[in-house]
Amino acid sequence: MPKITKPQRVALYARVSTDKQSTENQLTELRDAAKRMDWEVVGEFVDHGISGAKSRKDRPKLDAMLKGVSRKDFDIVAAWSVDRLGRSLIDLVGLLQELHSTGVDLYLHQQGINTTTPAGKALFGMMGVFAEFERGMIQERVKSGLARAKKHGTKSGKAIGRPATSPETEANIRELRAQGMGMLKIAKQLTCGVSVVQRVAAEV
């Protein structure tokens, strides 16, 4: 008897920034795409009235979907556009790494990205390049901040009081914490003190 192949299970994710907007158009296009590709929609996750600038912990449905990814509840995650999922390149890279590590594929309707295809799988191969680029940019911003402080004749950019932390470094700390990276690892990557990371994390 011929082997019966089960359709791949797909989770749909949609997001709008305000309560006045609707996700129905996003979901309709994703449902149509799933039907064309013979994917079985096993979950729809929608965050209403949440800005793309919010981290994963502030987007409950995104968080729930990614927990499902960890449990391998889905074979594919589908979103209408890349900006529905992440707020930056490092966000997208982190998401791709999480999907790839669990064997879950990604479909982005607007960008025409589908990692279930051979061409789409090449995107996973470029993750390391993107991640290295982002790390290099972070380190360069940190070095520039230290150079500016040294030019002004102070170790930290302030003559007295608590050492100043550049806005770039604080933003990068918040970004990496939102991805779930540990404080020691962040401090090592950004070449700053653990106490700085703890302070910024506490403020968040």
Characterise this structure.
The protein is an alpha/beta fold. The protein folds into 2 domains: about 10-125, Rossmann fold (3-Layer(aba) Sandwich), CATH 3.40.50.1390; about 130-204, no CATH class. About 50% of the residues lie in helices and about 10% in strands. It has 9 helices and 5 strands; from the N terminus they run βαβαβααββααααα. The protein has a 5-stranded mixed sheet, with helices on both faces. The longest helix is centred in the C-terminal third of the chain and has 25 residues, at about 125-150.
Give the arrangement of secondary structure elements.
Elements: E1 9-15, H1 24-36, E2 40-47, H2 60-70, E3 76-79, H3 82-85, H4 89-102, E4 105-108, E5 113-114, H5 118-125, H6 127-151, H7 167-178, H8 183-190, H9 194-203
Parallel strand pairs: 1-2, 1-3, 3-4
Antiparallel strand pairs: 4-5
Helix pairs in contact: 4-6, 7-8, 8-9
- Side by side, the strands of the main sheet go 2-1-3-4-5
Unreliable segments of 5+ consecutive residues: 156-160
Biggest sheet architecture: 5 strands, mixed
For the record, give the distance between the C-alpha atoms at the N and C termini, rounded to a whole number: 59 Å
Taken in chain order, the helices and strands follow as EHEHEHHEEHHHHH
Within the CATH hierarchy, at the fold level, what is the topology of the largest domain? Rossmann fold
CATH architecture of the largest domain: 3-Layer(aba) Sandwich
Mean pLDDT: 81
Share in β-strands: 5-15%
How many domains in all?
Answer: 2
Percent helix: 40-55%
Number of helices: 9
Task: Report Rg.
Answer: 20 Å
CATH superfamily of the largest domain: Resolvase, N-terminal catalytic domain
Q: Tell me, what's the shape?
A: elongated
Please count the beta strands (DSSP E, at least 2 residues each).
Answer: 5
